[in-house]
Every structure is written in structure tokens, then in C-alpha cells.
Write a structure and sequence with these properties.
The chain has 493 residues and is an alpha+beta fold.
């Protein structure tokens, strides 16, 4: 009698894990929980054990590899103790043999042993997907059913919300008099303008709470649906009014009673909160002066010879814009090719083709996550200094509103990879002695990437010129750097 491996939930074919003796569906996460030992015996009786693919990169000691396969022979016969002994013996010969660590974690019933060996794998290869997946289950970040959904190639179903999605908010009120709060940049404290209440100063970041990109992508893949929200519904707790707001708003004031609200989450849990914020260091008057000085520069005066670019009116407001900040560990391969004919090649050139590898890193790669202001401007704001980063708290938005990200972390990671590749090509691609007969090719591979979401301070100005052209100007709220956009006629995209 054959074994029925058809999933009763989705109808797809299920798989069998010899180490854990479980039958599960990698498509929907269903796990069959009865009679596994009998089914295991039936499967083993059908033939030889399946071939195990290695995930270890690099050479493996022959004796260690033989012990590894011996361990799987024992697993095939349901001899877990003997299998563990063989895998441990393989590690005694080669301590960095990742597959031996992996199968000890899969075979052992001790959570601490599992955690130790999975951590060893990730210490050698932070991008090891299988080890990360198992550790996330062990730590409770994924359920076994969710982890099973990450084995297949399909992504979560992208679904757009039909209408405004309800939100939960925090109202920024004074705990003493229930008055309106504001944030004082010089003291770095939240203050009440009515009773004089002063909050605690913000806490500078002491620990790195960035997330692994591999873990975040696995967590996303484990979700059956990925929601796209166009509008959210705000219910004001102070006056009872309801208002529909765009999906890019993180904080706002109620237009009816003036109370200040910060969105904590929506009903579909479609976004994540920032982990840090950089407070404003440049005041409104300083930002205005910086823009005025820039407009009086030589290039702007030359433009005025051809058009009337004198500013007639201007608005200037402070905002916190979301940025994804990435750190990356990189393996760089540099190939040097000597193109000169062999008879013309100098004797000191050992070979016409040489390849070297380097391990490098890039830190604090900033990718702005909004569409407006346009990326062409926000990309020029310059690097922020993350030494001023403080823990995010909603009350820090008491004075300036904040936007929600529209560019998600997975899309931002692709841009960050491009920035890393460009930086590595510049760093390692310099031609030796300006020799046109030498070609240098640089290829970089991301070994590990982590990220976090940070709110950055930006002053945004809209300038109306006397010829009725409109320009956007940005000022970095930490460093004071000014970025001027191009003048356009009103309504022109």
C-alpha cells in the first residue's frame, strides 16, 4: 500500500523530514501528527536514503565528510544517538563544517544544543537561510507552520485594502494638565506650554537593534497576505471626530480640536514603527537663512539673468522623514587583467591574470523611503550623523510631524546593494599606475546585511518666484545642508 503524501488542506504534495520524522506541507504549513514512526519505516523500506546537499562553502576534510554521511546512514535507520555522535566527530575534525552543525541542531532534542550550533553557523555565514529559519522557530519569531511556508518559491499574496483601515493612535497630552505638548530642541525635552511640565531627555541609542535582512525576508515570506493600504481612518479620542488620512502620515493634528496624534498601528498591521529618531539641531530661522544664502550664490544670480527667479513668497516647515539605514558585510573579488602582448609584458608581471579577494564592510547606508519630496532631492541631503540617534518615542513628534515610509525595506535593500557595489568598485577598481593596458574588474557579494528604520529631520520649503515658477528647497535638519530643486510652472509634474 502506498503512502498518501497529498496534503488534505491544499492538495499539494507533502514532504518527509527524516531527522524529525514529520510529514508536512511546504505550501500551506499543514503538519501531519499521527503514525509517523510507521510511515517512516514504510518510507525507509522503499530504498536508499535520500541524498543530502551540502550548504558548506569551501573545502571539507574528507574524513569529516565521511563521518557526516555516516551520521545520515544512522538517521536513515532511526539511530539518532549514533547520528549525533558521528556529526560531533565530524566537527572535531573540522570545527567550521556548517552542515555538521546544522544536522546536530536538526537531530538534537535539546533547545540549548540547537541554539548553540545554529549560532555557530550564523557566526561563520550570517546569510545561511536554513540556520536562520530554524533559529527563528526556536526563538518563537516563526511558528513551525509559518517556517514551512518559507520553503516554497511563491511570495505572499499582495492585496490592496478596499477602503480606509482603522488605526490605533497615541494622543500627545501633558500628563499633568492634559495640555498640548511641544518639543524643545535645545534642551532635548518634551515640554508643556501651559503648566511648564518637562519630560525626561531622550535616551541616546546604547545598543544596535537593527534586524537581519535574511530574517526579515523569511518573516515576510511566512505571511500568507501582504497588505497595501491607501488610506487610514483616524478616530480622535478627544472630540470623537473621524478623519480619513493618506497612508504616508505617521503623525498629525486633528483639524477639529487640534489634538496631536501619532499612529501606533493599523488593523492590518501593515507597517512597522521606527526604531530611532535624530532630533532637529537646525532651527527654523537657521534653515531660512541657509536657503537665503544659497539663493544669493553665484549660480543662482546667473540664473536670474535669464529669468526672474527672485522669491516672492515662501513656506518653510519641519518634518521627520523615514530612512532605511543599512549595514553590509561584503566579499570583494578583484580581477587584474594585463592586456599587453606576452612579448611586451615586463618581467615583474607574474601573470596576465590575477584574482584577489577582500572582506570589507559598509555602514550607515541611508535610503530615503518617501516619494515626496522627490528622491532626486532627498538623495542630496548628505549623510546624517547617527551619533545623535535616540530611541524613538511618539512624544518626540510633538512639534514636527512625521511621514510613514512608502518604500519598503526589501526594495530599499536593492538600492543599498547598488550603493555598496558602486563604493566597492571605486575603492578597489583604481587602475595601477594609470596603465591603460591593465583592466581591473571588481565584483562584490553581500555576505550579510542588517537594517533599521530611522526618522531624520528635514526642513521643507516651497518657494514661489516672481515669474510664478515654484521651487522646492530642502535643508538637512541636523547639518544645515541645503538642496535646491528645479523651478517649475505650477501644476507641472
Amino acid at each position: 500500500m502506498g503512502i498518501n503524501l497529498t496534503c488534505p488542506t491544499c492538495g499539494q504534495r507533502m514532504t518527509f523530514d527524516f531527522a524529525r520524522t514529520t510529514v508536512s506541507c511546504p505550501h500551506c504549513g499543514y503538519v501531519r501528527g499521527t503514525g509517523l514512526d510507521d510511515r517512516a519505516a514504510e518510507i525507509r523500506a522503499k530504498g536508499r536514503r535520500p541524498t543530502i546537499s551540502l550548504t558548506h562553502r569551501g573545502e571539507v576534510h574528507p574524513r569529516a565528510l565521511a563521518l557526516f554521511h555516516t551520521g545520515h546512514d544512522h538517521l536513515f535507520l532511526d539511530q539518532k544517538a549514533a547520528a549525533l555522535k558521528a556529526f560531533l566527530s565530524a566537527l572535531e575534525l573540522q570545527a567550521d563544517f556548517l552542515d555538521a552543525h546544522l544536522w546536530i541542531a536538526k537531530t538534537s532534542d535539546d533547545p540549548q544544543v540547537q541554539r548553540d550550533h545554529l549560532s555557530s553557523i550564523l557566526a561563520h555565514n550570517p546569510g545561511h537561510i536554513e540556520a536562520m529559519r530554524l533559529l527563528m522557530v526556536l526563538n518563537g519569531r516563526l511558528t513551525p507552520e509559518q517556517a514551512a511556508r518559507t520553503y516554497h518559491s511563491s511570495e505572499p499574496v499582495v492585496q490592496r485594502a478596499d477602503g480606509p483601515v482603522a488605526t490605533t493612535t497615541q494622543t500627545l497630552k501633558c500628563p499633568v494638565c492634559q495640555g498640548d505638548l511641544t518639543f524643545h530642541e535645545e534642551s532635548g525635552r518634551v515640554e508643556c506650554r501651559f503648566c511648564g511640565y518637562t519630560g525626561q531627555p531622550p535616551v541616546y541609542k546604547q545598543t544596535d537593534d537593527s534586524d537581519s535582512l535574511v530574517a526579515a525576508l523569511l518573516e515576510r515570506k511566512a505571511q500568507p497576505v501582504r497588505w497595501i493600504v491607501g488610506e487610514r481612518l483616524l478616530h480622535c479620542k478627544e472630540c470623537g471626530a473621524e478623519r480619513t488620512l493618506l497612508a504616508d502620515q505617521l503623525s498629525l493634528r486633528c483639524p477639529f480640536c487640534g489634538s496631536n496624534h501619532v499612529i501606533e498601528q493599523d488593523a492590518l498591521r501593515s507597517f512597522e514603527q521606527p526604531c530611532g529618531i535624530i532630533p532637529f539641531r537646525i532651527s527654523r530661522s537657521q534653515a531660512g537663512a541657509a536657503i537665503k544664502e544659497r539663493l544669493q550664490g553665484l549660480s543662482e544670480r546667473l540664473k536670474g539673468l535669464f529669468s526672474n527667479n527672485k522669491v516672492a513668497r515662501a513656506t518653510l516647515s519641519g518634518y521627520y522623514l523615514p530612512f532605511w539605514v543599512f549595514d553590509a558585510m561584503v566579499e570583494v573579488t578583484r580581477t587584474r587583467i594585463d592586456n599587453k602582448p606576452s612579448k611586451d609584458r615586463a618581467r615583474f608581471v607574474a601573470a596576465p591574470y590575477a584574482q584577489t579577494r577582500f572582506t570589507d564592510a559598509q555602514y550607515d547606508i541611508e535610503v530615503c523611503a518617501v516619494q515626496s519630496p522627490p528622491r532626486a532631492l532627498t538623495d542630496q541631503l548628505g549623510d546624517y550623523h547617527l551619533r545623535d540617534l535616540v530611541d524613538y518615542k511618539p512624544e518626540l513628534l510633538a512639534k514636527h510631524p512625521a511621514q510613514l515610509y512608502q518604500l519598503d525595506f526589501d526594495q530599499a535593500a536593492l538600492e543599498a546593494r547598488g550603493l555598496v557595489s558602486t563604493a566597492m568598485r571605486i575603492k578597489y577598481g583604481q587602475r595601477e599606475l594609470s596603465d591603460d593596458d591593465v583592466t581591473i574588474n571588481v565584483f562584490s557579494t553581500i555576505q550579510q546585511m542588517s537594517f533599521r528604520l530611522v526618522l531624520m529631520p528635514v526642513w521643507i520649503a516651497t518657494l514661489l518666484e516672481e515669474d510664478r515658477d515654484v521651487r522646492t528647497a530642502l535643508v538637512n535638519g541636523q547639518t544645515g545642508k541645503v538642496v535646491l530643486g528645479k523651478a517649475q510652472k505650477p501644476g507641472k509634474a
